[in-house]
Amino acid sequence: MAYLDNSATTQVCEEAVQRMVRCMTEQYGNPSSLHSMGVAAEEELNRARGEVAALIGAEPAQVFFTSGGTEANNLAILGGAAAKARRSHKAVTTAYEHASVAACFDELEQQGWQVTRVAPDAGGTISPAQIADACDEDTSLVSVMMVNNETGAYTDIAETVRLVRARAPQALIHTDCVQAVGKLPIKATRWGVDALTVSSHKIHGPKGCGALYIRKGVRILPRQLGGEQEHRLRAGTEPLPAIVGFGAAAAAVPPFDEQQRQYTALKRALLAGLQELPEVRLHLPENGVPYIVNVSLMGFRSETLLHFLAARDIYVSGGSACARGKRSRVLTAMGLPEPEIDGALRISFSRHNTEDEVARLCAALGDATATLQRRKL
Asked: Is residue 351 part of a domain?
């Protein structure tokens, strides 16, 4: 099998599996219980919080566990908007955010907020200056992703925070780092960002767990009520097996320079193989990360190619897994023509991928272009 869809999810690492099994079979107490089993569970919870905090450059007290990146994004944006509502109803985001961010801003518009969505250029890039230029002193909320989940476009969050603060000093600044965590260095405290989202299953941890970093002193109102957990920000018994798996996966992340060398080599091999195919369109932002590659094979629908590849145990995606086959909002925002959007494939690497797998993918795509019927453009 060649699994090259790691932006959708990743294989759970052995470190996470072992700690989760122990948590489910031995240390299965409720972290809120006062007896010794509860105390042991709370120690495991705190250990995982520290591991996630260390990965993102934060203090443990600034990390709040959620059910995943989607809930963390909702909490940051809707909870942050509720806390800022008395000040103003102006917000800035981008036109290529993940659906869990975009839907939150759609909801805010329904509530009467004025939302500015900064569009990427034809290459898929949005600069920190563009985001700052969309802000003014009345802007209360800003959200921009660090790495785009479909094209790999990268935004310098530290520079974005610096420029936005100069234009909108009272704004709550949030960044979705789900596609960056575990692959790129994150320095939440140093950057000065107010809220930052990460997810477990993108870094070889289990599904069903994410985290929201909140800068000390920043006010975000809870969206889920009914308990004392997570300092009353996210009520409900903590899913401890998932949380400890997240922590173990965070602790097992390899050195970033080592990963970047591997991803760069994989991308180089992929691009060389794609050049041998007819009518290929690459959607490579100038500042894109090396572990996400978006490409269109002209004359073929992505869905057809996905099935062709899956029959050969090769797995990629046609875009965001959350879109469930709908036309890409990201590529649409870039202004790409319909044939390119309809034929787009996203190849995304993890540290387990090899150049042999990339070669298998390119060979299979060559077979597809030679055997499948081409659509008229």
From this structure: yes
Instruction: Please tell me the distance from the alpha carbon of residue 348 to that of residue 148, in angstroms, as a whole number.
Output: 12
Q: What share of the chain is helix, strand, coil (3-state, %, to 5)?
A: 40, 15, 45
Asked if 174 and 33 touch (Cβ cutoff 8 Å), the reply is no
Q: How many residues does the chain have?
A: 377
* pTM score, whole prediction: 0.94
* Active-site residue, selected from the candidate residues 13, 209, 322, 362: 322
Asked if residue 322 has pLDDT above 60, the reply is no
Rounded CA-CA distance 263/273 in Å is: 15
What is the distance between the alpha carbons of residues 110 and 96, in angstroms, rounded to a whole number? 19
Please report whether residue 172 resides in a domain: no
Structural domain range at position 292: 2-10+255-371
Give the whole-angstrom CA distance, residue 211 versus residue 199: 6
Report residue 343 as tokens.
Answer: 């034929």
Residue 76 has what DSSP assignment?
I
pLDDT in tens, 17-43: 999 999 999 989 999 899 999 999 999
Q: Per the domain annotation, does 182 fall within a domain?
A: no
Angle between helix 240-251 and 36-56 (nearest 10):
40
Q: Which residues contact 337 (CB under 8 A, 6 or more apart)?
A: none
Between the alpha carbon of residue 46 and those of residues 43, 64, 238, the distances in Å are: 5, 11, 12
Closest CA to 196 of 244, 168, 242, 160: 160
Q: Is there a domain that residue 54 lies in?
A: no
DSSP-assigned letters across all residues of 106-124: HHHHHTT-EEEEEPP-TTS
How far is Cα 180 from Cα 152, in angstroms, rounded to an integer? 9
User: Residue 363: which CATH number?
Assistant: 3.90.1150.10
pLDDT(323) > 80 = no
**Total domain count, the chain:** 1
Residue 226 binned pLDDT confidence (cut-offs 50, 70, 90)? confident
What average pLDDT does this structure show over 69-84?
97
Query: How, if at all, do strands 63-66 and 314-315 pair?
Result: unpaired
Q: Is 23 a catalytic residue?
A: no
The first and second tokens of residue 167, run together, are 């234009």
3-state secondary structure of 232: helix
